[in-house]
Fold these 2 entries.
Entry 1:
Amino acid sequence: MGGFQGFDPARVRDLAGHLESVAGSVVPMHSQLSQLLQDAAADVAPQQVTRSPELQPVVDRPGVPMATGAIPISRVYGIPTGYLPGPRTQGEALAGGPLPGSVDPFLRQTAADIRSRCDRLEQVRKAAPPSVELDAGALFGTEPVDLNGVPKPTDGPEKNAAWWAGLTPAQREQYLYLKPEALETLKGLPDDVRRQATRLAYFKVVPYKIASHESGGSTKFTLGIVELGDGFAFRTEQISDGSYRVTLISNGQAGLKAGTKASAAFKYEFGDTWVFRNKAEADKLQADLKELLMWRMQMSHGMSDGARIYAARQYGKLMERLPDPRLKVKTAGGEVSGAIGVGSVTPGIKFGANFSTITSTIDPGRPSVTQSRDFTVEPSLTRGNVVKGDFGTVVNGTIQVVRDKNNPDPNTNITTVRLIQTVENKLGGTFGGELGGKKVGVSGSYREGRSHTHVVTVNVPIGADPAEQAAARKWLNAPAPASLASPVIPDKPPAPDADLISRLAHDRGQVSAVSYRGKASELKLGGKFTVEGIPFGFEATAAEKGDHLVGQQYLGAPDPKTGRRAFVPLG
């Protein structure tokens, strides 16, 4: 963070609060003055009690409501001549209108202006490198600039140069530290300014999710201790770069369940993601995908050959008009879970591991393939029988290596290594139960919960240097605990003997810390029966969840003098 001396924004904010307090006491004072003048006018009538044009409306017709509305005001304290709306009494006219009435909104507007200037000053201070000394007085004295009021890259070098030359140093600092990505493309700006803007903009994070919504369903069959299941889900995400992503997920599992306390399962998942520049196109595709799923079910479970043939035709028409997905994900993995019942309290824990291949054409000129390993630990606590309270924390760590799809050589094609850690705190409640006996019965439950999730991403671009490529390959084989532990934030210069990845993370790593709040609901319905001692079961689940962004920041550029990096708020 940049620094300044001799200026304390917190105390300046206190001053703004005092101004508002004074403004609040002005109106009662005006009312008392109004009553005093009206009493005086009654005592000296028919003589004129005042010749002041600002006070005349009060004594012209004392105590009479001004139902026709317009109350003239003169230019006082910078307030131009105009009219205040009615109806109101003469006392209210003075309290909200002519001369004294202009003081109250003036003081309140001044307090709001002081706060907005302090806000902008703090934004610049947090975004500037730690060793930069800022002129706080000049920043405070400058009205906050419109960060979107930057010339277009097509405006030409001369116009861009004239715009920059017309800015004060404090205005330039606002644009440089808060909107560097807009300056780096402007020809005509001084070369050193564009170089500095390019460096500052580089460390702003790669696109991240702003909000998401997901709905889906699944079915699961039980035969003895064997469980088989499959499901689907639709996910829509809004991304920070303004795009929208729609994902169709198909998944399944096969596993073993020992009673109600322990289970193990192998899982797989396929996902196709389409990327759009606006929400309307994303919504249209999601509607097409839902219709596609309906026709596919008709093809599999149609009541007649004619119905299946018709469904196949409709399915084919939809497939022809679907665009190609930009992301394709294949995931295989497993999980084991166990629980110990202690009265009405059930502690449990779940471990999971997944291996994924992600093919991306989001950048058509540079398609990529990502190898991803992620590990999950989920301790939980359930309390209650029919009505249950669920508490838990999910820690997920992901290690990724991104490769250039156009380069088949695995020793030279790595472009990025990435560590993602997600910590999700969950709190929810479940209502449900079973009807029937041990051999035959039905069950159902409804669960609703809230979550707070914090995601830290360390994204490190890798160059063609053989040493960097070797370090990146080693990264993919890092042990699971390294991903589940708190990620090492490269905010300090690495030690001389630090490994190459640590040095690269500090020098060029893009780091974000993003927080979300979410909610989820889940409805389960199931049944069971026993034939010759062998239990059979069926369970259907419908689920919905969503989340939205509540906080985001990124790790700023290394300070040119100290090498330290500091988190910078976004938005």
Entry 2:
Amino acid sequence: MHYDPEGYVDNAVLHTLRGFRPHVEKIFVVVNGFLDAQSRQRLDGVADEVMERENIGFDIGAYRAAFGRIGYGELAKYDELLLVNYTFLGPVGSFASLFERMDAVPVDFWGMTDHIAMTPHPIAGVGTMPQHLQSYWIAIRQRMLASADFREYWSGLKNAHSYNDVIIKFETQFTKHFADLGYTWKSAYGHERYGTLNASMEAPLAQLDDGCPIFKRRIFFHDAVDRDHAGLAAAEVAKRAIELGYPRDVLIDGIYRRTPSRQLSAALDGYLVLPEQAGDSANVGSKAVVNDDEHFWQSWLRDGQNVFEGASYLIRTGNEFDAASVHAALRAAHSRAFGVIVRQPAGIVNAFDQDDRLGFVVPLVEHRSTDALGKGYAQYGPQVHALADLLGVRPPLEPDAPLTPVLGISALRSDAFASLPQQVAAAGGWDSLASSMGGDKALSDLLDLLAADIARSNGFYTAQATTAFQLRVSHSMLEQKFSRLSSRFGPGPQTPFKGELRTGNGEARAAIARAIKRLAPKTAARMGAAERKAKSTVKRLAQAFRRMVK
């Protein structure tokens, strides 16, 4: 079963289907929605039959429609039916050992992974969610496949109307329904081996080490902090899968369209650690051009200048910067950014040369003397989404902290931005966009904020450049900040993201006082005077009371 809102079939889907080919007699792809012409051709090249249908009923509707097309009588002739969808990546290596191992297990149906029982039901909110095979992969053997029970189940199953509906009606009930009828089942990589609720999302590294030939796409675009609570980093999963033979380009093709730019960069270990001293720029040759135009975006996209000058890469020296008139913290940040991008052209070019999916390089995004990591869109929050829509930049955008240049300092691969002039023209041209976004400077700032996602929309990722020393400095300060933040919350691995704020030692009072001073300074002054008067009165009364006692 396949679904894509744009009718697109990525290379990861094709890789999976090619992986099945040596082990199956027939590949039938049922598509919810539609396919673009190229994707239809690509699928026709690897599948025996492709069925496009109206996008109704999610997985339930898709499988039932496919059974209707094939016929239950025809299905009953097969030894085994595999119901799989597009939500996983694989095979890592081959499916051969999996099928060989499971062929020896005498059950009526089996799955790749399972989820333990939970009370209350985590989605319905009441009752118990039974232990179940996860529905992205269910294999049904001939005894069950040829039974009236199987036909009656599908004819009586109501269509799903949402993702949660699929889980409640189909995924969490399928296993129990047939187990209650006496059919036996098994999970190839059962939860009991991993000690987790959901091993496919919480223990993918252990599963890969155990020979599991698939891993879930959701690992790369799910809430990264939530995955961190399970001790999991997407970059580790990607690295292990690639080491075990999964093609890196196929991995990127399978995740970039749904993964925000910062998460994509993190998953691909997007850090360039450059030498402390500037390298030899003589090796750059004609591969890169250095651009010192403060109005870079405007010169290129409005005035039509050939900013790349035929080179593959461009290094921006950034916006005009008068060191004598700015705060020392900004001056230091500019110096660090300039040092790792502009003064390290050989290192940047070498990184581009070695990785043809690297499209954009920015200096390490600062958290010193700035709130960029928490409020990276600053005052441009509403406009950035509007401009992304106008330019056709692929969602989702990073919610909090985009990977963005420091004062324009960055490096671009020409191929990653080749379509941008046409995108701007299609959106009405520079002047029209500038007028709607707040002027030329605002539009330039917005393009800096969107640059990583522009590259991502074209299949490229962004890396942050730094030196080993600056990376250590940054990390040590993050440690201290996080320690201070966590100390204000209760215990547990999810703090300070979900824990209760501790309010001892006058912290709540101090926080309220600061808020009043900021929002209503006159009221704060009156309250301060009243507080001092009250304290003075209490002090006098206490003194009088002590004299009376004496």
